[in-house]
Structures are given as C-alpha cells and as structure tokens.
Design a protein that fits this description.
It comes from Gossypium barbadense (Sea Island cotton). It is a single chain. Strand 11, helix 18 and strand 12 (552-554) form a beta-alpha-beta unit. Helix 7 (182-190) crosses helix 9. The chain has helices at residues 2-25, 41-51, 69-75, 131-136, 141-144, 160-169, 182-190, 248-251, 254-261, 272-275, 282-289, 295-309, 316-319, 324-336, 447-456, 467-470, 500-511, 535-544, 586-591; strands spanning 31-36, 58-64, 82-84, 173-177, 198-204, 267-270, 348-357, 417-419, 426-434, 490-496, 517-524, 552-554. It has 2 domains: 31-213 and 226-359 and 394-457, Ribonucleoside hydrolase-like (Inosine-uridine Nucleoside N-ribohydrolase, Chain A), CATH 3.90.245.10; 490-606, no CATH class. The strands form 2 sheets. It has a 9-stranded mixed sheet, with helices on both faces. A 3-stranded parallel sheet has the order 10-11-12, with helices on one face. It is α/β, with parallel strands linked by helices and 609 residues long.
Length: 609
C-alpha cells in the first residue's frame, strides 16, 4: 500500500504543478486608462508618454476633450483610441443632469444651453501665450503632424459622456484628470452605479502646502522690486491679487473638483507641492535638444522650444514646470507597484493628507448674487445645504471686489485644495516633492527627467511618420497671382469673423474679377463667433484659392473695454458669452463643421515668431 500512496502523492504534485503553470502562463490584463485633459503643451507630453508605454501593462482607451488629438493618435498608430468631445445636454434648475452635458461651462453655471459666462475661464489668456497658442500649438501642429481620416463631424462626433459610459461599463479602469474636472464630475453624478468600475483617480492640480517659486524678487535685487505670486499656494499668475490660493486646473471648476475628490473613489493628487520642484532646467532642455530620435520626441521638443522662446520674461527655466507629464510618470510608477499602500514610486515623495476643495468663501448661507447654486432658487440646486460650505460667496471674476484686501493678499479661496481635519476633508495621497536623480554623475537633477527622455525615444510604440514623411512629395509653396497687365478694380478690405457665412462671403469676393474688385487685405475679428485660432482656416482658404499675396491681420481678442486693466492678456466675455460653445457655435465655427481639415495647408499658418 505504501507504493500506492506514494503514487497518488506524485500524481497530486504533478497536478498542482500543472495548475500552477497554467495560472502563471495566463498574462495579466493591462491596466486600462481614461485620460481627461486639456490642450496645453504639457498635455501633449503626457499623452505621448502614455502612448509609449508597454501595452501589455497599460492600455490608454479613451481621450477626452479635444479633436486636436486625432492627429497625434494617427501619428502614433492609435486610431483605435476613442475621443470624446462636447455634448448638448443641460442641467435643470433642480440639479437634474440630462444626458450628454458637454462640459463647456462650469457645473454651477451650466443651464440648458452651451452658452454662458467665463467666471473662472477668464483667468486664462485668450490670445498670445494663451488659448490662441494652445489651440494651434504655436502653429507647429499643422506643420508637423500627419493627417488621418478621423476628424470632428457634426452629429457623428462621440460626446465626452458617451465614451466615458462606454469605456467605464466595460470593466475596471483608472482615470487620469489633468485639466478641469467638469466632464468627469458630471459623469460621476449622472452615473453613480459605474463608480465601482473606477479603481483609482490620479489628479494633476491644486496646491496644498506649496509655495509658488515664481514672481519672487532676486536676492540682490533693487529695493523697488515688489514680489508678485511669490510664496502663494496657487499659480494663478493672472489673478493672484484676488485669489493667491488656487491652481488653474482646479480653479477651472471648483465645484466639479469637489465632486471628484469626495466621490468615494481613491484619489492621488500630484499637486504644485511636487511639480514646483521639477522645473524645466536649462540642462534638461539641452539634453532634450540632443535626444530627439523619434518623431514624438521631435514634436515635443519643438513645442517646448516655442514655449521657451515666447515666454513672458527671461525666467522660463524657473517658471515652467513638468505638470501633466510628471503626473503621468508618477501615476504609472505607482500602478506598477500595485499592492503597496503608501504610493511607492520612482519619481515623487508621497504623503497622505486630509484635504477638501474650497468652492465658496465665508460667510456661508449668504445670498449676494454670486452663487448660482442658491441665488434666486426656492430650493438649492443638487439639494445642497443652505448654510453649507458651498453656500458662500463664489468668486465673480478676476477683479471681484469681495476678494480684494487693501495692502494685502487677496482673500478668495475658490479652487484651493485646502488641508484640514473637519468632516468635509477626505484622505488623499499627495505627491510632495520630485525625487532627485539617483545617478549623481548625471547633469539632470531629477529622476523623472531621465525616464521621460528614455520613454519618448524608445523604438517601441513609436510614431509611424510626420507630415513630410507621410507625404514625401509635399512642398510648401506660395501662390501669388500675376496682375501686372491687368487693370485692377476698386480696392477692398474685408473685415470678417470666421463663421460659415463669412467664409461664403470671402469665397464670393475671391471669385469676383479683379478688374471689378481688388481684395487688398483681410481683417479677422476673434471677438465674435469663432476663436482666434481659426485664423489658420483663413490662411488655408487663401492658399487653396491661390491668393497667398493677401495679407491677413488678427484683430483684438477682446471687445472694447473688456480686457483687464492690470493684465491685458486676460479679460471678460461680456458679449461673447451669448455665443454657444457647442454645436452651431464655437465648435462648428472653429472647424467649419469639420470641413476645415480638408483644406490644403498654407505655409502662412499661424506662427508666433
């Protein structure tokens, strides 16, 4: 019987070994990522960093916010990634959220249309060094990126809410939020049953214990130097006189950020506390300049160089930080160390803190006309507490008198990720400092610098081509008609905005014989229906018509008396707020209903320098 018992023991061992082998032979599923972002330069860095990762580990499944990213995804061979943009849904007075809210407006101002004010958004410059530069990526986007078949198409474009519902319903997913939180907060409130599929939220934004290193006087400066945002927790360089506490991403929609942080889903915050410790150094810039072995690295460096060359002052290397790209690196490193509870990672020191997002200012329970969640309503929106922390004064704009303190820092805290111990605080894992480079011989002083350059230049998951290699016979050429032997007609200057009707009028003028009408110049007014970046469409249209000789001038980005008296690059939208942001409004005008992509690319497209 001994031999029989031994036989069964051997069989049992073999079965266990075979079972164990099968278990380990089954590859783990990759971590699915949903990226909710905006279109600043550093967002491109973050997106390309994620696209370069090993797809057996990490799978970027959806990208929200902008059709601009279609070309980047095409370059990287990732047309499979869904892009969600906009939506026409609204929010009722009682707080009922209808399907497909577009996220164009902060939640507290979202009604039944996509038209509305710019209470928070006015902190972002509209023209140069602001949305004009970001929407065109300084003119680099159309001169470098290839062009695929995907584009914005009215009535066919998937909305942000549609793609979030689809991808979240498919199973566990991790969310990266590197812009304003509006879209994601609306999704969470509308679809609470899908929270169970969201494993973790990584956020870039806010400042908890941060001290802004910019706007400080030199150690040996003149006594007439007055520090600006130096030492502030926030980074609103356009609004530190009234709100020195907020960071741009959270300030874009403080109420939405509050919903995300208090959703019950684990949150890791890569705040200004950490990103302020990883500025783009001159050594990193030079190393990047010498490490451009892939198209994606070339595109990132071109963008970074243009950001440096057009910076506000000569302090770029102490004022421009790795925000979203650093967040992506920290998040991915933490995810690789899954199971460790303290956020162990390669790139940042971490600490748990109890924080909340300030959405209104004390005293609470007042009705001063500043808070759409309460003012003029029989019952507070979303069934909020009439005397709760959302019921105070909500900052009305950049120069809100309520926020000014004579001879002192501003007192408004809208968008502040404030540390506290009260019942409204939640436990959040916070990145506090970028880790130094473990290679003491390297000129790069941060560990993430080395990793970022390494990832972008890897041959795996690299871009297939850029514009010139996609179309090797493409040549930039100026087309100027020869009118030497023709009698020219009446000289005309056409002052237009960039709606569809204006383009039809422009086509008509270009078709009139020059003996009758000589179109001498075009003035583009970005205070009306389109955004300033749509000037590229005018250049492309003239190029198609063989009229690269006609000069194009960009008008003031603000209506008269609407630019800020202190910082002229920002201002109010008193009149422009009547124009919808979505269908039939800016979205369609800025793309000519998606048809603008079919125009030839003019060599005169918007270029900062």
């Amino acid at each position: 019987m001994f031999w029989l018992r031994k036989f069964w023991i051997i069989i049992l061992v073999l079965v266990v070994d075979v079972f164990r082998a099968k278990v380990y032979a089954v590859p783990a599923k990759p971590c699915r990522i949903l990226l909710d972002t905006d279109v600043d330069t550093d967002d491109f860095f973050a997106l390309l960093y994620l696209l370069k990762l090993n797809r057996s580990e990490f799978e970027l499944e959806v990208k929200l916010f902008s059709c601009i990213f279609y070309d980047i995804l095409y370059m990287m061979g990732r047309d499979d990634i869904a892009v969600g943009v906009g939506g026409e849904g609204g929010i009722l007075e009682d707080g009922t959220i209808l399907p497909n809210v577009g996220g164009y407006l902060p939640i507290i101002e979202q009604g039944m249309t996509t038209a509305g004010g710019c209470r928070y958004r006015q902190a972002i410059p509209v023209g140069l060094r602001g949305r004009l530069d970001f929407d065109t990526n300084y003119g680099i986007r159309k001169s470098f990126l290839p062009q695929g078949s995907r584009k914005y198409s009215p009535l066919k474009q998937p909305t942000a809410q549609q793609v979030m519902i689809e991808k979240t319903s498919a199973g566990p997913i991790t969310v990266f939020v590197t812009g304003a939180h509006t879209n994601f907060a609306v999704f969470l409130r509308k679809n609470p049953h899908l929270k169970r599929n969201i494993e973790h939220i990584y956020v870039m934004g806010g400042g908890v214990r941060s001290n802004n290193p910019t706007g400080c006087c030199p150690k040996h400066g003149t006594p007439h130097c007055h520090p600006r945002q130096c030492g502030d927790p926030g980074n609103l360089f356009t609004d530190y006189n009234t709100n020195p506490y907020a960071e741009f991403n959270i300030f874009g929609d403080p109420f939405a950020a509050y919903q995300v942080f208090h959703s019950g889903i684990p949150v890791t915050l890569v705040s200004l506390d950490a990103t302020n410790t990883i500025p783009i150094t001159e050594e990193f810039f030079k190393a990047f300049e010498q490490s451009q072995w892939t198209y994606e690295a070339q595109y990132c460096f071109k963008s970074l160089k243009m950001a440096r060359d057009t910076w506000f002052d000569d302090r770029f290397y102490t004022s421009y930080f790795m925000w979203d790209s650093f967040t992506s690196g920290v998040a991915v490193s933490i995810m690789r160390n899954y199971g460790k509870n303290n956020g162990e990672n390669e790139f940042a020191e971490m600490e748990y803190m109890n924080i909340s997002v300030v959405t209104s200012n004390e005293p609470y329970g007042i009705c001063d006309g500043s808070n759409p969640l309460f003012d003029g309503l029989h019952f507070p929106k979303f069934k909020l507490n009439k005397s709760g922390l959302h019921s105070g004064h909500v900052q009305m704009g950049l120069r809100d008198p309520f926020c000014f303190v004579e001879n002192g820092k501003g007192k408004c805290k809208d968008g502040y990720t404030e540390e506290g111990t009260g019942p409204d605080s939640v436990r959040v894992l916070v990145a506090t400092k970028a880790k130094p480079n473990h290679d003491l011989t390297s000129k790069l002083n941060r560990e993430f610098f080395t990793n970022f350059l390494d990832v972008l230049n890897r041959p795996e998951n690299t871009a297939r081509f850029n514009l010139t290699t996609e179309f090797p016979h493409f040549r930039q050429a100026f087309y100027e008609p020869d009118f030497k032997n023709r009698t020219l007609g009446k000289p005309v200057v056409f002052d237009m905005d960039m709606s569809a009707g204006d383009f039809m009028a422009l086509f008509y003028l270009l078709k009139v014989p020059v003996e009758l009408l000589n179109l001498k110049a075009i003035l583009v007014s970005p205070t009306g229906w389109p955004n300033a970046a749509a000037i590229d469409i005018v250049y492309d249209l003239l190029h198609m018509m063989g009229r690269d000789d006609i000069p194009v001038g960009l008008g003031d980005v603000f209506a008269m008396s609407q630019s800020d008296q202190i910082f002229h690059l920002v201002g109010d939208c008193k009149y422009a707020k009547a124009i919808p942001h979505g269908s039939g409004g800016f979205l369609d005008s800025d793309t000519i209903y998606g048809l603008a992509r079919d125009l030839p690319r003019s060599p005169r497209r918007m270029c900062i320098l």
